């Protein structure tokens, strides 16, 4: 129905050039089955994000943006852009990627989430089974009685100082018993003095409402993890693919 009633397929551009994780084959097939077009995007060679972009997909970058690339992404988002950020926990900072996220009211806490509530993890406390918030993105999973599993996630922090035009909504959250280990070299499961206490957001949806109500808002979805889309997980846990 979508194919025959739409003039153009929704266009997803996956950012490349920063050590990003490639889009898994199963996800590519699922996007194709649902009439999305998917192409790689290198902002070093492109003057800007293409006009036909419906979604910019940023999937686990390992290196930071160049200044010119950051500018192109900001310009796209400021003009009613849509983006999905899947940010894995790294030992290094990515100031320009993180600067974009901070402009939209969220930061990445460089810690690995450990869940102590046995109802919120699978087998080991790093394999998180998060609570699902009430949101239109999440509702189909709740209606279908599906769950998601996010391994090795980092918390997403809502900043105290942010633009008034921003609406930040939780999608996936830990229990109150969760905590974050900040020393990534420490392999123990014991909470230390410098570790942080939950509960945490693991995924959020952000809307930046324009002053002109006739304009479309900017929308972002941010995950503190990308490995929930690994092929093995999406085959064993249908809720992960459904969520994406």
What's the quick description here?
The chain is α/β, with parallel strands linked by helices and 244 residues long.
Which tags fit this structure?
244 residues; alpha/beta; 25% strand; globular
Walk me through what this model shows:
By secondary structure, the protein is an alpha/beta fold. It is 21% helix and 25% strand. The strands form four sheets. An eight-stranded mixed β-sheet has the order 2-1-3-4-15-14-11-8. A three-stranded antiparallel β-sheet has the order 6-12-13, with no helix packed on it. A two-stranded antiparallel ribbon has the order 5-10. Helix 2 links the parallel strand 1 and strand 2 (37-41). The chain starts with a helix and ends with a helix. The relative contact order is 0.17. The mean pLDDT is 93.
Can you lay out the helices and strands and say which pair or pack?
Blueprint: H1 2-5, E1 11-15, H2 25-33, E2 37-41, E3 55-59, H3 67-78, E4 82-86, H4 95-103, E5 106-108, E6 112-114, E7 127-128, E8 131-132, H5 139-143, E9 150-151, E10 156-158, E11 166-173, E12 179-181, E13 196-197, E14 201-208, E15 218-223, H6 231-236, H7 238-243
Parallel strand pairs: 1-2, 1-3, 3-4, 4-15
Antiparallel strand pairs: 5-10, 6-12, 7-9, 8-11, 11-14, 12-13, 14-15
